[in-house]
Design brief:
By secondary structure, the protein is α/β, with parallel strands linked by helices. The chain has a single domain (6-212), classed as 3-Layer(aba) Sandwich (Rossmann fold). It has helices at 17-30, 45-55, 64-88, 99-109, 114-125, 140-151, 163-179, 193-212, and strands at residues 6-10, 35-39, 92-96, 132-137, 184-188. The chain has a five-stranded parallel β-sheet, with helices on both faces.
Length: 213
């Protein structure tokens, strides 16, 4: 049985990941590929329940360690119930965020550490990694404008954190791409939706060409 491909969109807040993930699914479907679009935290009923706890936490909210554990638990369910079964059926899975968001947000910006986050991922999800990770990046002022238009004064518990926190998150994604160039592709996300979509497709098309050989 042919295994599918696993592609993840990563990046900080307001980079356009959800839009580009949806557009990539539409393009792949037009090429005859069976595709599943999903997100993190979420994707399964259990993971969506944890998502609600993370983005609208009870009481004083979660510390970075508890947050890392909750993300790992949501991911374990997501991988076991949706991602691995789809890949084993030969489907492609397009995911809005995955492991590297935990590495950036909780591991680097939250101070939990990369080793701890990767250890949780090994326990919960068998160290599954994407075939390709697309990191969308854009100028900080443009991102701030997008977030104001999208959220107004209503940011969730993670999106509403300090500018310094989000700067560290964005820097972490850049470091990951430098450290693992075979898995990551940096995509300039500050231009029009169509221009970014074309850049995304240029990065993904070789995987489709390899599948057709």
């Amino acid at each position: 049985m042919t295994s599918g491909k696993f592609i993840v969109f990563e990046g900080g807040e307001g980079m356009g990941k959800s839009t580009q993930a949806r557009l990539l699914v539409e393009k792949l479907e037009s090429e005859g590929v069976t595709v599943r679009l999903t997100r993190e935290p979420g994707g399964t009923p259990g993971a969506e329940a944890i998502r609600a706890l993370l983005l609208d936490p009870p009481g004083e909210g979660w510390g970075p360690e508890a947050e890392a554990l909750l993300f790992a638990a949501a991911r374990a369910d997501h991988v076991a119930r949706l991602i691995r079964p789809a890949l084993e059926r030969g489907e492609w899975v397009i995911c809005d965020r995955f492991l590297d968001s935990s590495r950036a947000y909780q591991g680097r910006a939250g101070g939990v550490g990369d080793e701890a986050v990767l250890g949780l991922h090994a326990i919960g999800s068998g160290s599954l990694l994407p075939d390709l990770t697309l990191v969308l990046a854009a100028d900080n002022s443009l991102v701030a404008k997008r977030l104001r238009e999208r959220d107004g004064d209503r940011a969730d518990a993670i999106g509403g954190r300090s500018d310094s926190y989000h700067s560290e998150v964005n820097a972490a994604f850049g470091r990951f791409a430098q450290e693992e160039p075979e898995r990551f592709r940096m995509i300039e996300g500050g231009d029009s939706i169509d221009e970014v979509r074309e850049r995304v497709w240029q990065a993904v098309a070789p995987l489709l060409e390899a599948r057709q050989i």
